[in-house]
């Protein structure tokens, strides 16, 4: 029953889609377990750049079963659009995609609330993707959420929408001064989407469990990253779900005994979208070079990402929080051409050295990175076909990461294409 979890070890956008795509070729099933269409996974296949938001990246491999787990929040309209987008490329989605009947729905009022709450926060804005993720998870915890199984019972769905609109419209109109929602158009568009997805809706736990018992290979694909976890991330600058490895059990509806190993995906440097402290952020030319070379712009929102050096304090934290078995390093090609590269090995805080990632954002925002400098490597390495041919300084950089985190590097990538990655440890 091999079960491998792939999670982001930083603030998201580590290139998880790339690793999942690689491992998916040998998996039987790929499962997403948290978040929604706030995620953006880019995978390049035969010169086509696929952008996925809700559907697991495994869908790009013919024959693989893909699961949208109960821990996700689904905008059914966006889901239908994504299915049609993939079908437009001749990809068979409907026979391979399984959607949990227990997943919660993102409703139009969640998206509006995401926007107006952000605006009202002023200085305290998080910079959310405005896809309604937070308000949908709030409703789930509040026990007023609407689930996929409700969508398949039109009468009950209508009643639930009605109940919710009574509360939501009061808030939208009286607190935020915006126009409320009419029930009719919501029901019409959601039931239309329901027709399109209903044959894919099922009890996904049973399917995952069956696959596992039959020794099938299952890949659990995290979205966002460790530092965006609502419990263990840089709260409150986090998303509302659990991108960490522990989130798999709840979000896929399985027990921990079904998981064998956890791979943390680490970008060769650090990026972050949205607000919040970022000790190794580069606000200079080097930051701009990394952003342009690495095309560091949000897949979902197009926002420029903040860029900085690799932060080992943060990575060591991710190692512990996720119990990482292996690391996969992506985008090593982006750092090519820099004379020197830096790795943050500790923080200076009020004259003292800190090596544990602090909970307090006040502390974090006053931390000064302590760097170790390494020699850089040349540009244009993306077409190298053998690990032995990689520049010596790049290999040193990888060993340094292994040494500082105490975790074996299992995979590296030097470009966005499928063939531009090397497996160092065979995972499946
Ligand atoms: P939300 O998930 O839209 O509520 O946004 C909360 C925070 O998570 C914001 O700082 C977003 O920029 C960040 N975030 C959400 N999804 C992603 C992602 O896929 N990659 C990187 N950051 C993300």
Strand % is 15-25%
Low-pLDDT segments: none
- Give the strand order of the largest sheet, numbering strands 1, 2, ... along the chain: 9-7-5-2-10-1-11-15-19-20
Q: Count all strands and give the number.
A: 20
Identify the bound ligands: inosinic acid
Key traits:
single chain; alpha/beta; 4-stranded mixed beta sheet; binds inosinic acid
Write the layout of secondary structure elements.
Layout: E1 3-8, H1 16-24, E2 29-32, E3 41-45, E4 48-52, E5 65-68, E6 73-74, H2 76-87, E7 97-100, E8 104-105, H3 108-121, H4 133-142, H5 148-151, H6 154-175, H7 183-197, E9 201-202, H8 204-213, E10 218-221, H9 247-252, E11 261-267, E12 270-272, H10 285-293, E13 306-308, E14 310-311, H11 312-322, E15 326-330, E16 340-349, E17 352-354, H12 361-366, E18 368-375, H13 392-405, E19 408-413, E20 421-423
Parallel strand pairs: 1-10, 1-11, 2-5, 2-10, 5-7, 6-8, 7-9, 11-15, 14-16, 15-19
Antiparallel strand pairs: 3-4, 12-13, 16-17, 16-18, 19-20
The chain binds inosinic acid.
């Amino acid at each position: 029953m091999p079960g491998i979890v792939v999670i982001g070890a930083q603030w998201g956008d580590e290139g998880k889609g790339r690793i999942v795509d690689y491992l998916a070729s040998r998996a039987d099933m790929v499962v997403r377990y948290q978040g929604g269409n706030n995620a953006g996974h880019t995978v390049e296949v035969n010169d086509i750049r696929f952008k996925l938001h809700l559907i697991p990246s495994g869908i790009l491999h013919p024959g693989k079963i893909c699961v949208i787990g109960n821990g996700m929040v689904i905008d059914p309209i966006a889901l239908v659009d994504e299915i049609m987008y993939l079908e437009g490329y001749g990809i068979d989605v409907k026979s391979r995609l399984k959607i949990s009947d227990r997943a919660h729905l993102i409703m139009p009022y969640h998206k509006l609330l995401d926007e107006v709450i952000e605006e009202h926060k002023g200085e305290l804005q998080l910079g959310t993707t405005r896809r309604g993720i937070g308000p949908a998870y709030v409703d789930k915890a509040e026990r007023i959420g609407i689930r996929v199984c409700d969508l398949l019972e039109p009468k009950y769905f209508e009643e639930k929408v009605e109940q919710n609109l009574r509360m939501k419209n009061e808030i939208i109109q009286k607190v935020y001064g915006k126009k409320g929602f009419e029930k009719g158009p919501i029901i019409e568009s959601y039931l239309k989407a329901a027709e399109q997805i209903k044959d894919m809706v099922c009890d996904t736990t049973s399917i995952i469990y069956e696959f596992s018992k039959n020794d099938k290979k299952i890949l659990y694909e995290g979205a966002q990253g460790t530092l965006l976890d609502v419990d263990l991330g840089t709260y409150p600058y986090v998303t509302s779900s659990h991108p960490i490895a522990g989130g798999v059990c709840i979000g896929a509806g399985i027990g921990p005994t079904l998981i064998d190993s956890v791979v943390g995906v680490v970008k060769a440097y650090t990026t972050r979208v949205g607000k919040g402290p970022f000790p190794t952020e580069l606000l200079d030319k080097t930051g701009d070079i990394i952003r342009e070379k690495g095309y560091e712009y949000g897949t979902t929102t197009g926002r420029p990402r903040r860029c900085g050096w690799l932060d080992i304090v943060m990575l060591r934290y991710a190692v512990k929080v996720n119990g990482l078995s292996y690391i996969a390093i992506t985008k090593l090609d982006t750092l090519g051409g820099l004379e020197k590269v830096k790795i943050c090995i500790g923080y200076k805080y009020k004259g003292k050295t800190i090596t544990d990632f602090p909970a307090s954002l006040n502390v974090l925002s006053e931390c000064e990175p302590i760097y170790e400098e390494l020699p850089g490597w040349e540009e244009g390495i993306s077409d190298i076909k053998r690990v032995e041919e990689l520049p010596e300084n790049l290999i040193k950089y990888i060993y340094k990461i292994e040494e500082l985190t105490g975790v074996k590097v299992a995979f590296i990538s030097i470009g966005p294409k499928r063939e531009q990655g090397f497996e160092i440890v065979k995972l499946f």
